[in-house]
Design brief:
heterodimer; A: 339 residues; alpha/beta; 5-stranded parallel beta sheet; 16 helices; globular; B: 525 residues; mainly alpha; two-stranded antiparallel ribbon; 20 helices; 71% helix; 2% strand
């Protein structure tokens, strides 16, 4: 009799947990952030050679399908708008669970933002961790980022998104179904297409010698990341993607960052000094002062592709049978960008 | 610690595991520890001094009463215990009322002493332990010699939030008896707990947002909307209180301890008297046993009865003292409900008045029914009686939700006089009422009114849950034992019901970071 109840209870709990996982998935918002992050999990294991990590300064800048088309490089934008810099280390760790990339490209745009305002990302952590697979790394990331981004103490709902979004089920359902039917793939590999255009004034970043030390918290986040990459021998380059504005403090901070990265032996590619090489047209290539649009992104992608091909040994997978799915996606990509 | 919080369920799980691991004879020690932990985490360690002092006074008082042979001394001890317990309750609960009253006479006695926090459940455990002392005085049973058992009974943690008010002879048997683990009972307890959560978190808390919107701007709404607000509040109050009771009883049942029933489908009542016999049953019974009967048996009222019998009729000599007793207990009930004049009137004087009026008019109604040959067994007659009862109850409850008695009068005034166009009022209500999710892009046009998907989902969930509550109420009224019927079904059917119920409350309940912790209305009494 006792055994019957034990079996009954355990069986019920298993069924309940399975149902819970499905419903948890159904209520979580199906926006761009989720599609970017979940799409990454649906890439074939160990198929990506380059992973780009950053905020919208990666999302709108690097078009992986274009990289594949022109250079045969398989890559993914594991990025999302306003992604807190403290999440970077965790996302590299998460990547290494499923992929074995030959290179990480990490954009440091948010370092300046965070240094300017230590509370800027305090409400942003869950906008990314909510969409990750349940794992110890996810829990560690939540705990780490809440502490580093001054977000207070994590609540139950931060670990189990269901308790945050539970009332959304009927509202979120149609988007979730549509996304499920598409197999959760992200056909642009995390890249966000923007056709908006906001002409900017011709902009040249001045060369400034001054260095401004980062505040203790921000530097702490960057140092944690660099120490992690060094200890684990992770191949990484750091970038600062083109903008149509600057402040003197910003330039001084990145000069300091450059020095710090140099001390670890890592390259820092500040593409704001490479407008001519990239071929940026301030009149047509920006959607706002902070982000390029599709036309700017295609130029930028070409530039970064050339840089990677020249400096790193990344294979060309075009035409390979294993990567036939990438070739198949190219037609859709070309149609998407109107070529 | 709220009994609908995640931490409470973790606490409950741990306590239940410990309870059933410990040998049966000593299991009540686990309840004692759970009581202290719950009490301290709910009110803070400072407040436990009030509870312990009340229990020590009652423990010592009951033992002394039992030891003493002299009746005057026994009486003195009882009076002393009553004065201390009621005094402590009055000080902590009514100090603000005292300040307000003095202020009306131009006397300012406010100060830091007003900020003292009353311990959780004080209104409930004071009555429970007062009843224990009076029962010992009336020699119903012997005094408890183990003070830890008395603490376990008095601060029984499931009942601290909103009752029910316990009787020592009944509860001591259940809490302290050695009992084997009964899995079916534990399952039934969990089912009742889930049902309580559905009523509280889904129905009551969703309704509270609509009710607060209407009450918050009642002067700008059409009278029909105000009436809707009053009716929705009555459903909210019932769902909140009875939902709380179901959670408490379910929690207690997990430990194999059955608590006294506190609600019996009150909206099925056909008279005000019947309503108050079905609503907050243990409170009504406590006041009847410990206040009304002693008042009626008192020398003063017995003397009055004799006098009235001489001067008037036998009927008047019986009725008038009863009415005096009723008014006395209803005023006390009003005072017990809250330290403000609003509760003294709305929870006390007015319901007492309706009870007396109903009794006075009963012969008149009987004569009318006879004269008009009304079939008092017909369904329509029963329905009209229920409707009449609801109107009486709602007319009182409009004050419960209002900020003050004066505001309650104002709401009734606006209910009768407000003539804004109904479609505009409905549109305003929908615009004013808070949404849970950002669904500004999902709007549907219904009868010329733009309604967001969020609101439609909310109304749908409230309607479905309300229908479930009515159906369950009807089944209870017909004597159907629902949980036993579920247990008799195949396992897969039981699981489907359990999973649907769990997800109904987990999905549509009002909880989580977007909402404040939903406190029970009756926790504040």
């Amino acid at each position: 009799m006792k055994n019957k109840w034990i079996i009954y209870t355990i069986s019920f709990l298993i069924v309940f947990v399975l149902c819970f996982l499905i419903v948890n998935d159904a209520v979580t918002p199906t926006g761009d952030n989720r599609k970017d992050i979940v799409g990454f999990y649906h890439e074939k294991k160990n198929s990506l050679d380059v992973v780009f990590i950053g905020a919208s300064s990666t999302d709108y800048y690097v078009a992986p399908m274009e990289l594949y088309k022109n250079y045969g490089i398989t890559s993914y934008d594991l990025s999302a708008g306003a992604m807190a810099p403290s999440l970077t280390k965790g996302f590299i760790e998460e990547t290494l669970k499923y992929q074995n990339p030959k290179l990480f490209v990490v954009d440091l745009r948010t370092i300046d933002t965070r240094d300017e305002d230590p509370y800027k990302f305090s409400n942003q952590v869950r906008n990314y961790t909510d969409f990750m697979r349940l794992s110890k790394n996810r829990i560690d990331m939540i705990n780490y980022c809440y502490e580093k981004e001054n977000s207070g103490t994590p609540q139950i709902s931060d670990y189990i998104p269901y308790f945050q979004y539970h009332s959304r089920v009927l509202v979120n359902y149609p988007d979730w179904i549509k996304w499920e039917l598409n197999g959760r793939r992200n056909d642009t590999k995390g890249f966000l297409i923007s056709m908006a255009s906001d002409p900017q004034e011709e902009y040249i970043w001045p060369s400034v010698a001054e260095k401004k030390k980062l505040n203790e918290d921000t530097e702490g986040i960057l140092v944690d990341l660099l120490d992690y990459c060094k200890e684990n021998e992770i191949p990484v380059i750091f970038t600062l993607n083109v903008m149509a504005y600057h402040t003197d403090d910003m330039i001084a901070r990145y000069n300091y960052v450059n020095e710090l990265l140099d001390s670890y032996g890592y390259a820092f590619l500040n593409t704001n000094y490479c407008n001519d090489e990239i071929g940026i047209d301030f009149e047509t290539d920006f959607m706002d002062a902070n982000h390029v649009n599709l036309w700017g992104a295609l130029k930028y992608t070409d530039y970064i592709g050339q840089y990677i091909k020249t400096n790193y040994d990344i294979p060309d997978h075009r035409g390979e049978e294993e990567y036939a799915d990438w070739d198949e996606l190219l037609d859709k990509w070309n149609e998407e960008i109107g070529k | 610690m709220s009994i609908t919080s995640f931490y409470f369920f973790i606490f409950l799980f741990v306590i239940a595991i410990l309870y059933y691991l410990i040998p049966t004879r000593n299991r009540w020690w686990v309840i004692l520890i759970a009581n202290v932990v719950f009490f301290v985490t709910s009110t803070g360690i400072g407040a436990i001094g009030y509870a312990i002092s009340a229990i020590v006074v009652s423990y010592a008082g009951a033992l002394l009463i039992q030891k003493t042979d002299k009746e005057p001394l026994k009486k003195l001890i009882v009076i002393l215990v009553i004065v201390i317990l009621v005094g402590e309750l009055a000080f902590l609960k009514y100090r603000r009322l005292l300040v307000t009253t003095c202020y009306l006479f131009g006397i300012d006695i406010s100060g830091d002493w007003v900020q003292v926090i009353a311990p959780i459940g004080m209104s409930y455990y004071t009555l429970s332990i007062l009843g224990y002392v009076l029962d010992v005085y009336w020699e119903k049973y012997s005094a408890e010699t183990n003070i830890f058992k008395l603490i376990t009974y008095t601060l029984y943690f499931p009942t601290l939030t909103s009752g029910p008010i316990m009787r020592y002879d009944d509860m001591s048997l259940k809490i302290f008896e050695a009992r084997e683990f009964q899995p079916q009972k534990v399952l039934h307890g969990i089912e009742l707990l889930i049902w309580g959560l559905i009523k509280k978190l889904v129905l009551a808390d969703r309704l509270s947002l609509w009710v607060s919107t209407i009450y918050g701007s009642y002067s700008s709404y059409n009278g029909w909307i105000i009436l809707l607000g009053i009716m929705l509040f009555s459903i909210q109050l019932y769902a909140d209180f009875s939902g709380c009771m179901d959670i408490i009883m379910g929690v207690s049942e997990i430990f194999g301890i059955d608590l006294p029933v506190n609600f019996r489908t009150p909206f099925a009542s056909e008279s005000v008297a019947e309503f108050w016999r079905r609503w907050h049953i243990t409170l009504g019974v406590w006041f009847k046993d410990y206040l009304l009967y002693p008042i009626l048996k008192s020398d003063a009222l017995q003397a009055l009865q004799k006098l009235l019998k001489k001067r008037f009729s036998k009927k008047i000599s019986k009725k008038l003292p009863t009415y005096i007793g009723l008014l006395a207990i209803w005023i006390t009930i009003g005072i017990w409900h809250g330290g403000s004049y609003k509760f003294i009137f709305a929870s006390g004087i007015i319901p007492g008045f309706f009870l007396i009026l109903e009794d006075l008019l009963e012969p008149v109604v009987e004569r009318i029914n006879k004269k008009l040959s009304i079939n008092t067994e017909s369904k329509i007659y029963h329905f009209l009686c229920r409707l009449r009862t609801m109107i009486c109850i709602l007319s009182v409850w409009v004050f419960i939700k209002a900020d003050s008695f004066r505001q309650g009068i104002d709401i009734i005034k606006h209910l009768v006089t407000n003539r804004q166009a109904l479609p505009e009022s409905v549109s305003s209500l929908i615009t004013d009422k808070v949404v849970f999710t950002s669904t500004s892009e999902h709007f549907i046009n219904m009868f010329g009114i733009s309604v967001s998907l969020d609101h439609l989902v909310d109304i749908f969930v409230i309607a479905v849950t309300f229908i479930m509550v009515i159906v369950v109420g009807i089944m209870h009224e017909r004597g159907v034992k629902i949980r036993e019927k579920i247990s008799a079904r195949p396992v897969c059917v039981q699981w489907i019901i359990l999973i649907v119920a769990l997800f109904w409350v987990m999905t549509f309940g009002i909880y989580g970071p977007a909402f404040n912790a939903s406190d029970f209305i009756y926790k504040f009494f």
